[in-house]
Amino acid sequence: SVELEFVVLDDLHWSEKQENIKSLDLKYNAAWKTIISECSFKDSFEDIIYPDGDPDAVFLSKRDIELLQPRTFINDTIIDFYIKYLVTKIKPGEQHRFHFFNTFFFQKLVNVNRDLYRDCEGRDVFGCVRKWTRNVNIFEKDYIFIPVNFSLHWSLIVICHPGEGPCILHMDSIRGSHKGFEDLIRSYLSEEWKERGNRHEEDIATKFLNLDFIMLQVLLLSLTPSLLLFSR
Amino acid sequence: MVKGLSGRKKPAEEPVLPKVTICIAQDGDEVYFRYVRNKKIQNLLTLYCKEKNIDYRSVEFLFNGKRIATGRNANQLGMVDGDQIDVMTHNIGGG
């Protein structure tokens, strides 16, 4: 189970919001825990660079944190921050098995694909992200994660065992809302495979073009929220 | 547009700072700059935003797919002539 902590500071409407969150699932109500801490928190949220020293560190400002309010859309910074946080939870010896693209990877693929719509060759689209993986061989990974944002909605593509018999999972809470990206991902994999000096194995590259997409409708994550209430 | 070759020649005693040509690309629009290798890239990006009239905080700058950390310069990023910085807009969405 996952434990989720909220830090609440001076929010007059918190009790109402809290009830809203709890009403989402019966399990939330049962697992809810309020901790009132004397720990003092600074009035203003200071900008955070996370993880500090990471070449692709995420810069979080107060403006991003405000997006964590209920009924508010979250942005790429929050998504990328959370992915980086999750990576720290993977055992160091296991980390090499995974590759996490940041949220801009898919945005870039889609944008360039749109711009080149009339002359949509896989290689052109690939060119824009060719250097993104120059220090990593994605075909040595067990799982590749691609966060997807399209029409104000987030979903997640997971490429399983890309170097062996790959299978692609698309996890989306709204079934069918993110359709039509299959070929984009397939041709990306095919081009990346050729880029890795696997030109003599063109037949394998074409295999990527026929990969099955498995749509998974992920409704609610099983969460065990606990509330961390800071009062001064 | 080429920047950095502004106007008159400097007096000979001043050292010539090594520069690199950087392309800043946004939605198919490319702008080229000649920029000092050991100066913060951030300053160039701020200037770019000012010229393009965009809010610096409303976009993310990527080099080879990675965010450009505060305070880094072209040398630290291993940039060579013609390297491209992608300007990406922030996305929001529900889960």
Notable traits:
heterodimer; A: 232 residues; alpha/beta; Actin-binding Protein, T-fimbrin, domain 1; TATA-Binding Protein; 2 domains; 5-stranded mixed β-sheet; 3-stranded parallel β-sheet; 8 helices; 31% helix; 24% strand; disordered C terminus; B: 95 residues; alpha+beta; Ubiquitin-like (UB roll); 17% helix; elongated
Secondary structure layout:
The complex is a heterodimer of chains A (232) and B (95).
Chain A: E1 2-8, H1 14-22, H2 26-31, E2 34-37, E3 48-50, E4 58-60, H3 62-65, E5 74-75, H4 76-88, E6 98-100, H5 103-115, H6 122-127, E7 143-150, E8 153-160, E9 167-171, H7 182-195, H8 202-208, E10 213-216, E11 223-230
Parallel strand pairs in A: 1-11, 2-11, 6-7, 9-10
Antiparallel strand pairs in A: 3-4, 7-8, 8-9
Helix pairs in contact in A: 7-8
Chain B: E1 19-26, E2 29-36, H1 41-52, E3 59-63, E4 66-67, H2 74-77, E5 83-89, E6 92-93
Parallel strand pairs in B: 1-5
Antiparallel strand pairs in B: 1-2, 3-4, 3-5
Structural summary, described in words:
Chain A: GO terms for molecular function: cysteine-type peptidase activity. The complex is a heterodimer of chains A (232) and B (95). With 232 residues, chain A is an alpha/beta fold. Chain A has helices at 14-22, 26-31, 62-65, 76-88, 103-115, 122-127, 182-195, 202-208; strands at 2-8, 34-37, 48-50, 58-60, 74-75, 98-100, 143-150, 153-160, 167-171, 213-216, 223-230. In chain A, the strands form three sheets. In chain A, strands 6-7-8-9-10 form a five-stranded mixed β-sheet. In chain A, strands 1-11-2 form a three-stranded parallel β-sheet. In chain A, strands 3-4 form a two-stranded antiparallel ribbon. The longest helix of chain A has 14 residues, at 182-195. Chain B contains two helices and six strands. The relative contact order of chain B is 0.24. Chain B has a five-stranded mixed β-sheet, covered by helices on one side. Chain B is elongated. The interface between A and B is medium-sized, with 36 and 19 residues.
